[in-house]
Design goal:
The chain is of the alpha/beta class. The protein has 14 helices and 17 strands. The strands form three sheets. It has a nine-stranded mixed sheet with strand order 16-15-14-13-7-12-11-8-17, with helices on both faces. A six-stranded parallel sheet has the order 3-2-1-4-5-6, sandwiched between helices. One of its GO terms (cellular component) is cytosol.
Length: 507
């Protein structure tokens, strides 16, 4: 197979120290350390590196290594190789401390410098904030006052910070977080991570659009009827009820994941793959989103909660009966939005976004539905119209894409039938795709910010979402519509799209 390298400048990954705040937490154990381990197995890590976990839980280096080893065994996409692990774990360290305590940062600096001297590391440092946003200010201040964070300066050792979502809960709080991090770090040093942007199919969106001459000429309002972007989750809120009560589906999923997917679908062709050029193209999409304000929320949005039902044969309680949820909660577990990108390319084309918990399956996809063919020849029967052509990009599970076309049924009678031209990464390339965190951590090490949200994009997306939140607040609802757990959402969402003569896709 002749695999073409992408025409992007490959920045060498320098030796560095990764410091994970929240190092004893689930994200570090389930995602971050397994991601670094897989980068090692794939030969992508520099020869010299160190990982320091920082958390409140008292642990020795050995206890930390044992903890994350269990995480690698359970969650790594590649099996643990004993010899490789024994070499890898010598690069793992732990320090106990409170994010608000100045002594933590003095101890962290002393340990980092000792490790860097012993392992001959140059002092390049990446700080991953896998902690609540309420602690960001304390961490940034501690890093600055201890001298751990350094400004960008030529060939000097670099400092970079990774901010885990959510970056705020509305426009004002997002601006506050950006101010806090911006006081210590230059924008070029800040990497706001959205793991969806590291998924293989999401990265493939740009390649599908801009490396195939058959798509870009028809990627506009003249040929595309509408776009559906769906992120469905099969589980309820589970143990995340306290977080979810403060967030809800709009904040948790639409503001970041789905809007970023929308940007990749709708953006104009960038003139290069330079990170700022790509991010400028995405930013233009956010600037063109039609605001949904005031009573417009009744026409363009639907929110609901899951009620008692069954998922995968197991009973699921209603959302308001979940442990940690207020019995009179109006936090949405499902949201559907009809959005418009008001520019020349997309004039009049609706983008239907939906996400929810306790739906029939865990799946994510972008579906681009093309306009119907004229009602002549093979589409002459209005009572039985031909299905439209649909390009579907599956993000999870079974990463890949499919194109639905109409074909003739073999035989003596003139009959047609829709068929799927299907591609799956695992079938073609014979190996599992890298996990999103692997790609994104490697990007940070290389200083490539193209898959990370810039400050203006974060604030623009929050500005759009906050207007919806304000419109909902004006409704003063006491109860939300409901849908049974294990179904595809409320009837109100069906009505919203059916009023336009369209239907939701069944994933």
């Amino acid at each position: 197979m002749d695999i073409k390298p992408l025409p992007e400048a490959i920045t060498p990954v320098e030796a560095c120290t990764l410091v994970i705040f929240g190092g004893s937490g689930d994200l570090a154990r389930r995602r971050l350390i397994p991601a670094v381990y897989n980068l090692l197995l794939d030969g992508l890590l520099p020869d010299k590196y160190a990982v320091i976990g920082l958390g409140r839980k008292p642990m020795t280096d050995t206890e930390f290594r044992n903890l994350v080893r269990e995480g690698v065994i359970a969650h790594s996409r590649q099996a643990l190789v004993e010899d490789t692990w024994q070499a890898f774990e010598r690069h793992l360290f732990y320090i106990q401390g409170e994010n608000e305590d100045a002594q933590t940062y003095r101890a962290l600096r002393a340990k980092a410098e000792q490790i860097e001297q012993t392992m001959q590391l140059p002092g390049n440092r990446i700080f991953y904030l896998s902690i609540p946003p309420s602690s960001f200010a304390s961490v940034c201040e501690g890093l600055a006052q201890s001298g751990l964070a350094t400004p960008p300066a030529g060939s000097a050792p670099y400092s970079r910070i990774i901010v885990e979502k959510p970056v705020g809960r509305d426009l004002a709080s997002a601006q506050q977080i950006n101010e806090v991090t911006g006081k210590v770090f230059d924008e070029s040093q800040i990497f706001r991570i959205d793991h969806y942007l590291g998924k293989e199919t999401v990265q493939n969106l740009m390649v599908v659009r801009f490396a195939n001459s058959i798509f870009e000429p028809i990627w506009n309002h003249k040929y595309i009827d509408h776009v559906q972007i769906t992120v469905s989750e099969a589980e309820g809120v589970g143990t995340r009820a306290s977080y979810y009560e403060e967030a809800g589906a709009l904040r948790d999923m639409i503001q970041n994941h789905l809007l970023q997917l929308l940007c990749l679908v709708a953006m104009e062709p960038p003139y290069s793959l330079d990170p700022n050029v790509v991010r400028n193209a995405k930013m233009e999409v956010l600037r063109c989103l039609r605001p949904i304000v005031g009573k417009d929320v009744e026409q363009y949005t639907v929110r609901a909660q899951y009620a008692q039902g069954t998922a995968h044969g197991q009973p699921v309680p209603g959302y308001r009966r979940e442990k940690g949820v207020s019995p009179d909660s109006i936090t949405e577990t499902y949201v559907a939005v009809k959005a418009f990108v008001e520019n020349w390319r997309w004039s009049g084309v609706p983008f239907y976004l939906r996400t929810g918990k306790a739906l029939p399956k865990r799946a994510s996809e972008v579906a681009v539905q093309f306009k119907d063919i004229p009602q002549i020849l093979f589409n002459a029967n209005p009572a039985n119209p031909q299905p439209a052509n649909v390009l579907t990009l599956r993000i999870q599970p079974d990463e890949g894409l499919s194109l639905r076309i109409i074909s003739r049924v073999p035989g003596t009678r003139a009959q047609t039938h829709p068929v799927e031209m299907d591609f799956q990464y695992s079938d073609v390339f014979g190996c599992p795709s890298p996990e999103a965190y692997e790609r994104l951590l490697l990007d940070v090490m290389a200083g490539d910010a193209s898959r990370f949200m810039r400050r203006d994009a974060v604030e623009a997306s929050w500005d759009w979402v906050t207007k919806i939140l304000d419109g909902w607040a004006q409704q003063k609802l006491r109860w939300l519509p409901e849908y049974s757990a294990g179904t595809w959402g409320p009837v109100e969402a069906e009505r919203m799209i059916q009023n336009d003569g369209r239907t939701w896709r069944i994933l």
